[in-house]
Design brief:
Length: 420
């Protein structure tokens, strides 16, 4: 479990829950001919995963084939895997299937996860009792998740539910019915705050800036220099914020005071993209929502449901819906005046809306009050879906295979102490 790779003894074992991606593996064989590759398709396993953060869609396969992207569970009997395979492997590619004991994998030097994080394996012996290098597929999710963030925000701000209802009813909305639409405000000049400026947050910032928004960022540790602001992980070409130049201001800290100072920066839209750790569990609750209520912020969460105190979020959404609104606009007026719009905004309490791709728990029970929360969009943890998922996850591995052979450090390596 150390000492660097031996080109005559490399054995890459893939234990993934979808059919073998032959073209991708042929690409790896061509570029790394000294590596023997063994692929084991675990999609036959009758299991339901602990939350791995992986959507049902790892590559260009049918949804039925790829249900296993969330159907691989720790502790599932891995009948396709023999003791010899564990023993011979020097590199493991997996979602969550791990050797049950470190003694079974004496040659294992690198484990690459197809997930963005490793919280789903942090109680395993491999994680807790070894120093095997662990890498994640962080960085591959930015394009599709940023599009989900933008989609759901615009659905809310542009009253799309009303427009869709008119279409399904074959109804051409009358001017007397369009008062809500005449209060739409575009994003130019509004402030987006990204809580957790990783690969996903950087791509959201990239898109937001193109719409004329001001962007501010929050990270756990300070980023005082240009070098410290750079993205050192995997970057899908043409996306993100590689040099960290987009935010007009950076905030940081692990204490509540630092978080509250960040949230008090006249935020119009908060995107939550921090990893789930013991420090971020219930990071946002009533005190934080009260601060965001200053501008009736919109909240998007693509991280984990446990980051938010869900009951407090519902209360903040209900407060906005129930608060006294501005006088109804004149239906004969072409536009609502800026002064009237500002008056209406200042009269309201709470948060104007939320979009959640993650909930607590998952799946969300049928009777959970979150389903009925006003101005709240809930989707079943699908924002990461993309036919490019598997290919990009293997691209991260390929970067690290090259770096190992060159004696360089790995990208996306997990810091066990931090938990990500």
């Amino acid at each position: 479990m150390g000492g660097g790779p031996d080109k005559n003894a490399e054995h890459l074992l893939c234990t993934l829950p979808f059919p073998e991606p032959k073209a991708i593996l042929d690409r790896i064989r061509k570029n790394h001919p000294h590596i023997q590759i063994t692929y084991r398709d675990l999609s036959h396993q009758d299991a339901f995963a602990k939350d791995s953060g992986i959507p049902d869609g790892g590559g260009a396969y049918s949804s039925n084939d790829l249900r296993a992207l969330k159907a691989q569970a720790i502790g599932t009997p891995l009948t396709h895997l023999t003791t010899d395979l564990w023993r011979e492997a020097t590199i493991l590619v997996t979602l969550s299937a791990l050797p049950p004991s470190p003694a079974l994998c004496p040659n294992l030097e690198l484990i690459h996860f197809f997930s963005a994080g490793t919280n789903h394996v942090q109680t395993t012996p491999i994680y807790k009792e070894t120093t095997i290098a662990l890498t994640t597929s962080s960085g591959i999710h930015g394009p599709q998740i940023a599009e989900w963030v933008l989609l759901t925000s615009l659905v809310s701000s542009h009253a799309y539910h009303t427009l869709h209802a008119w279409q399904t009813q074959h109804l051409w909305g009358k001017q007397s019915q369009t008062s809500r639409l005449r209060t739409v405000r575009d994003n130019v000049g509004q402030r987006l705050a990204v809580l957790g400026y990783g690969s996903i947050g950087r791509q959201v910032a990239h898109v937001a800036r193109s719409m004329g928004m001001d962007v501010i960022a929050f990270t756990a540790s300070p980023r005082p220099t240009p070098e410290s602001k750079r993205d050192r992980g995997f970057i899908v070409p043409g996306t993100g914020d590689p040099d960290g130049s987009i935010p007009s201001a950076w905030h940081s800290g692990l204490d509540r005071a630092s978080l509250h100072a960040f949230l008090a920066q006249d935020i119009d839209w908060l995107v939550v993209s921090v990893p789930l750790t013991k420090e971020t569990h219930h990071l946002l609750g009533q005190p934080e929502f009260d601060i965001l209520a200053k501008r009736n912020a919109f909240v998007s969460n693509i991280s984990r449901g446990q980051i938010l105190v869900q009951a407090d979020l519902i209360a903040a959404l209900e407060a906005y819906a129930a608060s006294e609104a501005a006088p109804a606009p004149d239906p004969d007026a072409e536009l609502q005046s800026p002064a009237t719009a500002e008056q209406g905004a200042s009269a309201r309490k709470g948060l104007r809306g939320a979009a959640l791709d993650v909930t607590d728990p998952e799946p969300l029970p049928e009777g959970d009050p979150l389903w009925e929360a006003p101005n709240c969009i809930v989707t079943p943890h699908i924002s990461g879906l993309s036919v490019m998922y598997a290919d990009r996850a293997f691209q991260v591995l390929e970067v690290n295979l090259a770096r190992r052979e060159e004696g360089r450090g790995l990208i996306n390596e997990v810091d066990r102490e931090r938990g990500y």
